[in-house]
Design goal:
The protein is mainly alpha-helical and about 250 residues long. The protein has a domain at about 20-85: Tetratricopeptide repeat domain (Serine Threonine Protein Phosphatase 5, Tetratricopeptide repeat, Alpha Horseshoe). The protein has 13 helices and no strands. Helix 6 packs antiparallel against helix 7 (about 125-135) and helix 10 (about 175-190) packs antiparallel against helix 11. The longest helix is centred in the last third of the chain and has 23 residues, at about 230-250. The termini are far apart. The relative contact order is 0.05.
Length: about 250
């Protein structure tokens, strides 16, 4: 009977398979640690994964996210850029790059990354919103308002777009326009208490004190323990005193 030749390599993991196993082991462990908010521990495992495979975009991405949470935005940007260079269609890498540039105080760098994220995934409103915020930080208010409005038209239920547009309009003193946008928020979600406070402030600034009181009251009913509640109560009472003084002067 012929003896079957046995090659020890038949019982060994092929080099490429062994590399994949090692990579997966480090990467999965790193990702699990990152999801447990153990960022420093995750970093060493992501670095080990990169040593196994220097062309794995997801390892660089995970490493970048860890450094973002460790508030080391320079390193976060470095590794996220590496991920985006390896995979040019990596939406999450470009989005997080934009966020890290904003956190690092580089809004111009943020803009180009959010633009790329939008190009990759035009249906995701988050990158479009952040693009508007970046232009707002750069004090390009006209462009920011255009982006917020376009986002409202494309995603009419996306309240954040209304919120940011109304806040910017208030910042530049366009209180009437802001109140209109805030009213649209209430139509979408009547429990969105911040909109009532915003409308009250808008009417207050426009000198429409009775309307301001009406919305301040609605806000206080919905959110009496809010951080803004003390300010709103104070302003509500001041308007009340002013109105009483005005009525007394009329009587005299």
């Amino acid at each position: 009977m012929a003896t079957e030749s046995i090659n020890k390599n038949d019982y060994m993991t092929p080099p490429c398979a062994e590399k994949t196993v090692k990579l997966n082991s480090y990467f999965l462990k790193a990702t699990a640690l990152r999801r447990e908010n153990l960022y420093k521990e995750a970093v060493s495992n992501y670095l080990n994964a990169i040593l196994v495979d220097r062309n794995n975009a997801y390892s660089y991405y995970g490493l970048g996210i860890c450094f973002k949470h460790l508030h080391n935005y320079t390193k976060a940007i470095k590794y996220l850029e590496k991920a985006s260079l390896i995979r040019e269609d990596f939406y999450e890498a470009f989005y997080e790059l934009g966020i890290c540039h904003l956190l690092e105080g580089i809004p111009c760098g943020a803009i180009k990354n959010f633009v790329r994220a939008v190009q990759i995934n035009p249906d995701n409103p988050d990158a479009i919103l952040q693009l508007g915020i970046s232009h707002e930080i750069c004090e390009d208010y006209e462009m920011a308002l255009m982006i917020y409005q376009k986002l409202i038209e494309n995603s009419p239920e996306y309240i954040k777009a209304y919120d940011h547009k109304s806040s910017l309009l208030m910042k530049i003193g366009k209180y009437k326009e802001a109140s209109i946008i805030l009213n649209k928020i209430i139509k979408i979600n009547p429990d969105y208490y911040k909109a009532y406070a915003g409308i009250g402030i808008c009417f207050d600034k426009l000198g429409k004190y009775s309307e301001a009181q009406r919305y301040y009251r609605k806000f206080l009913i919905k959110k009496p323990l809010s951080n803004k509640a003390d300010f709103i109560k104070e302003r509500f009472n001041k308007i009340k005193i002013q109105k009483n003084l005005a009525n007394n002067l009329k009587i005299v």
